[in-house]
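This entry is set out below.
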Amino acid sequence: MNNAITGFSKLSKEDKINWIANEYFSTPSEAIALLKNYWNSDESIQKLHDDFIENTITNFYLPLGVAPNFMINGRNYTIPMAIEESSVVAAASKSAKYWSTRGGFKATVLNTEKIGQVHFMYFGEVKKLENFFQQIKPKLHSDTESITKNMQKRGGGILNIELRNQTQKLSGYFQLHATFDTKDSMGANFINSCLEQFAKTLKEEALSFDAFSESEKNIEVVMSILSNYVPNCIVRAEVSCPIEDLADKKIENPHEFAEKILRAIQIAEIEPFRAVTHNKGIMNGIDAVVLATGNDFRAVEAGIHAYASKDGQYRSLSHAKIENGIFTFWLEVPLALGTVGGLTSLHPLVKFSLEMLEKPSAQELMQLVAVAGLAQNFAALRSLTTTGIQDGHMKMHLNNILNQFDAAANERVLIKNHFKENVVSHAAVVTFIENLRRNL
């Protein structure tokens, strides 16, 4: 069977589905029915989803859950989370309720600077290039006025443009390194439009710069693109309370608990194998809210993990300390987010999520997302240092196993009662189901 096809993108959605079903599935009718089963019954909503990406054949659903009782900077929030992993929403909710009676979460945006770069090659005298840059810098700003006008009205725009010499890393390599404030938009299109104009101005002005030789005038622009690494777009989230106040029904010795949390974080700060899993737990919370609010979770992931490696070793994003009887737990992460533009004004559930969050600004959303990550991390560390991670996680996973085996209602009652007192594992659940069905 020949799997190659020409002109696939020009086919109708029905024809694309029919080709896939007949090409790859032994029972094409079942494959077609499955895809159509996930179409939205409202044709206008389905058309909206079809237009988000290319070659759409159906919708791929993720559960949208909510974690209530988040007290953040004195305000109560219910946070939306789009994620498929069991126990994440439950863990966030548990942390939110725990800290709501201990002063709540505090969050602060430390900076909102975003970055874009024009990468270019120049093989002439560096001093000439530096003089050239100083001469054209005002024109770089003026040539982008039509792009920046509306952003400037909102208080944003281009913050600075620098010439950076990177020839110690790659022969002939230089950058125009620009910083931006994009206010409530994530700003990718705005930044990239500015950068492409910078590149055009750079090349055009070089051709008429008298100090350049003929070869120096031919500056080669390699690419112009924003960076998803935003080490100066930082938000801090934290919780703190007297050590004695950490006590609850699962924390009988709060001093021992605080010390264990401290040790667990110290290990993640020095051991990359642990740090990766530690930070993955933080991202469970961050990604779920980023996705629910229509932001780019891949960009956020890449930037945050780069930040975790900023000193040359991958380390924990969260930190803790004990001083004068006070336990403090915090994280600082780079988050380039938006609450206007993109999916925020198109996807109905994104609009729903943002309204539920009381229509936050980009800076407010940064705070909420960081808090979700900190809450998730606290829940994981609490489990790891007390009952163990599997106790809660596998009990949440139990529902997935029961669904996998199409457990009936009466079976679910018996199985759940059994595993209230027994360790949950996939093998143990399967064995219990098989024995139960043999004896019924």
Q: What stands out?
A: The mean pLDDT is 94. The longest helix spans residues 362-385. The longest strand covers residues 64-72.
